[in-house]
């Protein structure tokens, strides 16, 4: 990164979605969710989480508060920012970038893990053996694929961010990919931790790289 890149990157996973809730309620029972990944909306809890995010952003000191926003095209991410922005009371330029979409699941789309094991037992076993970074569902993406497109996105921030703090509103897979790209971590094993709904992860620009400030923080939701 050069001096024109972001001075600080704040990455947020969207608030709780209706699909998150349906998957949690299904537990170990197979579930085929009724909407495509890009169509899923926030729950009432997800909207409250997004409002709490807006209050957190409003309370940040000058120099840490984001001055531009990049957002996933998926509805739940856009709703998260709209609610947070309204609660903050500040209008920022927002860029929707396709590279910030969630990991594409291909043949596994709309299926919870139990339904994947029921319908694609051989693929489920292959995923278990290969690990989530390397495994690519039929017609979908591996986490390594997500890292590659997020790396291209981060390269493009150099020259667009103009030395400002920026906010990225996206998905758990994108937050994990940002950690890989910004910290130079080459992950091949299990992800560091489940990235929680409406969690905040922050990196600040250092000498030629980014330094983690906090990861997967949900203190503002207490």
From TrEMBL:
Top EC group: isomerase
Molecular function terms from GO: hydrolase activity
Keywords for the protein's UniProt record, in alphabetical order: Glycolysis, Hydrolase, Isomerase
InterPro entries, A to Z: His_Pase_superF_clade-1 (IPR013078), His_PPase_superfam (IPR029033), Phosphogly_mut1 (IPR005952)
Domain of life: Bacteria
Species in which this protein is naturally found: Nonomuraea bangladeshensis
Protein name as it appears in the record: phosphoglycerate mutase (2,3-diphosphoglycerate-dependent)
Database matches in PANTHER family: PHOSPHOGLYCERATE MUTASE (PTHR11931)
